[in-house]
Write a structure and sequence with these properties.
- There is one protein chain.
- With about 90 residues, the chain is α+β, with helices and mostly antiparallel strands.
- The chain has a single domain, classed as Alpha-Beta Plaits (2-Layer Sandwich).
- About 30% of the residues lie in helices and about 25% in strands.
- It is built from two helices and four strands; from the N terminus they run E-H-E-E-H-E.
- Strands 2-3-1-4 form a four-stranded antiparallel sheet, covered by helices on one side.
- A hairpin with a 2-residue loop joins strand 2 and strand 3.
- The protein is globular, with a radius of gyration of 13 Å.
- The protein starts with a strand and ends in a 22-residue tail after the last strand.
């Protein structure tokens, strides 16, 4: 499934959350990630994220779609992390 993950995490925990999310998804811009994950990998990501976050102060929003083609992505201005793959 295709995932867009957005987080708002306290300053002391943001580095750990960034590192975790980069293990599973592609970094798009500050606190925004996207990519395809299996349901089990998504559960694993959520489990690990809960260990890092303070649920009373932090938030994570996860948008899911069964098909990436259903989403249209439009970037205005400079794209912070282009996903081109070079061989």
């Amino acid at each position: 499934m295709y995932i867009i993950l957005v987080y708002d995490i306290g300053e002391r925990r943001v580095g750990k959350m960034l590192k975790l999310c980069r293990q599973y998804l592609n970094w798009i811009q500050n606190s925004v990630f996207e990519g395809s994950l299996t349901p089990s990998k998504l559960r694993e990501l959520k489990f690990e994220a809960k260990k890092i976050m303070d649920e009373e102060h932090d938030s994570i929003i996860i948008f899911t779609s069964n098909n990436e083609d259903w989403l249209k992505k439009e970037v205005m201005g400079r794209e912070k992390n282009e996903l081109d793959t070079f061989l």
